[in-house]
Specification:
The structure holds 2 protein chains of 2 kinds.
Chain A: E1 6-8, H1 13-22, E2 27-29, H2 35-40, E3 48-51, E4 61-63, E5 69-72, H3 77-82, H4 84-89, H5 91-97, H6 111-117, H7 123-130, E6 134-139, E7 142-147, E8 152-154, E9 157-158, E10 165-171, E11 178-185, E12 196-203, E13 211-216, E14 223-224, H8 226-235, H9 240-250, H10 261-283
Parallel strand pairs in A: 1-3, 2-3
Antiparallel strand pairs in A: 4-5, 5-10, 6-7, 6-10, 8-9, 11-12, 12-13, 13-14
Chain B: E1 2-9, E2 12-19, H1 24-31, E3 50-53, E4 56-59, E5 72-74, H2 87-94, H3 104-117, H4 123-129, H5 140-155, H6 166-173
Helix pairs in contact in B: 2-5
The chains are: A alpha+beta, B alpha+beta.
Chain lengths: 285, 182
């Protein structure tokens, strides 16, 4: 890494923004589990690292006034997946988080870092998309919120502006209590990106239930398969095979070392059908 | 750019001047001569460089030394007490959970963190806790057995059994497995 690389660790958001405006070539640092390897290979070459981990405001998980849950940008994934409120209300998020890397990696990696890296295979993003999460962001122009549905703009690209940082990710109260599974294919269980990831969720205790289907590693960004969800909401689990076809139509996979485009597309169908079947099995005592 | 940092390593306060790009791994190995922490992949995949950072197991190759300013670091060298190996280290010896040994310090540090949080881990829990540690000699069976044996010993409050003398190690410690054809 270059010898003129600087490092700052501000204790307030305002100071972090000021440091970044002085050094436009800088990068915000959270867990560093993506950024440091990218710097080593030369894919990124920031002039200064502005470490956000010492900002108390970004280190909290707290309930919002309207019953949602705010997860601060600097909270490690290990703390997200073990948090009692996450497990009780957003168990599918905990499940998705627990598939990222391995337990030690999740002591450093963060939810905000995972979505800012904007990998098409981002495991946490499928839950955040499914739950209509909202990203809190702040820049020198002020605070704003971005819905997850508009956060990703392409592989490695987000709707954040230069110098803007993520403060938290908010899960709305209306997305509490979804049952379901995150079905993920990878070459080994730890430390591998998903070849295909399919989240199938259904709201508990509502008639008719809401369905959620979100896909990782089968399109330029993680995506929701909204047409498949709507079909299941209209016709119930007996329409699983047709919903699986609609989910396959929603994806646009590539061929890479983890699998071919054809394989990925097929597996989306298999995993959607399996996920709906698992919902039925879980629902019966 | 150079920065001066102070951190606690294995109970001792250390002050060092480091380049911003220097990882905690390089500081431990090159600056503090703690070579028990290994450099394998240097990109957070293999777990050979596992240390405890404020009690959490982390890949030291993915932490900049400057990020550890003010932190408490435990390396494999910090596990023994008064010359007596940690119960996990003794269990690794007793179960022959070592082949080339390169991954062993990282495995043991990950296991220390596991047993602190879960004194009676299932086999599955052990495998999950060690999923960030690669062994290229493929000795996972013995490693999992060693971690569970150390857990049982720690629960019994007796520490692990005394380290076996060298001559006794193999015949007494290698588990007999029925699936292996005679």
């Amino acid at each position: 890494m270059p010898s003129d690389l600087d490092y700052r660790s501000p204790s307030t958001v305002d100071h972090a923004l000021a440091l970044m405006s002085e050094a436009p070539g800088g990068a915000f640092l959270l867990g560093g589990t993506d950024l440091l390897p990218q710097m080593r290979t030369g894919r990124r070459a920031p002039s200064v690292l502005v470490d956000l981990k010492r900002i108390a405001e970004l280190r909290e998980i707290r309930e919002t006034a309207d019953g949602g849950l705010s997860i601060g940008a600097a909270v490690p994934l290990a703390d997200v997946e073990t948090h009692p409120l996450v497990r009780a209300r957003y168990a599918l998020l905990a499940e998705c988080v627990s598939t990222v890397g391995a337990w030690p990696l999740r002591q450093r990696a963060t939810l905000a870092g995972n979505i800012c890296n904007a990998s098409p295979a981002a495991d946490t993003a499928v839950a955040l998309l499914a739950f209509d999460a909202v990203v809190g962001a702040v820049s020198s122009e002020g605070r704003r919120t971005l819905p997850m549905s508009r956060f990703f703009t392409g592989p490695g690209r987000t709707a954040l502006r230069p110098g803007e940082l993520v403060t938290d990710v908010v899960l709305p109260a209306t997305s509490r209590g979804f049952a379901g599974s995150y079905l993920r294919l990878s070459r080994r269980k730890g430390m591998d990106l998903a070849t295909v990831g399919v989240l199938v969720g259904r709201s508990d205790g509502e008639l008719p239930p809401r369905y959620r289907i979100a896909l990782a590693a089968v399109a330029p960004t993680p995506i929701r398969a909204v047409a498949a969800e709507e079909l299941l909401e209209a016709r119930g689990p007996k329409a699983a095979a047709e919903a699986a076809e609609l989910a396959m139509d929603a994806c646009a996979p590539i061929t890479d070392l983890r699998g071919s485009a054809e394989y990925r597309r097929e597996m989306v169908g298999v995993l959607v059908r399996r996920g709906v079947a698992m919902l039925e099995r879980k629902a019966r005592p | 750019m150079r920065k001066t940092i102070t951190l606690e390593v294995n109970g001792a306060s250390e002050t060092a001047e480091v380049e911003v790009g220097t990882t905690l791994l390089r500081l431990l190995r090159d600056g503090l001569d703690l070579t028990g922490t290994k450099e394998g992949c240097n990109e957070g995949e293999c777990g050979s460089c596992m240390v405890l950072l404020d009690g959490r197991p982390v890949n030291a190759c993915l932490v900049l030394a400057v990020e550890a300013d003010g932190a408490r670091v435990t390396t494999v060298e910090g596990l023994s007490r008064d010359g007596l190996l940690h119960p996990l280290q003794r269990a690794f010896l007793a179960h022959a959970a070592v082949q080339c040994g390169f991954c062993t310090p990282g495995m043991i540090v990950s296991a220390v963190a596991l047993l602190r949080d879960d004194p009676d881990p299932s086999e599955d829990a052990v495998r999950r806790a060690l999923s960030g540690n690669l062994c290229r000699c493929t000795g996972y069976r013995q490693i999992v057995d060693a971690v569970r044996a150390a857990a049982a010993a720690l629960r019994a409050g007796e520490g692990a059994p005394e380290p076996p003398r060298r001559a006794e190690t193999r015949p007494t410690a290698l588990p007999v497995r029925e699936e292996v054809p005679a």
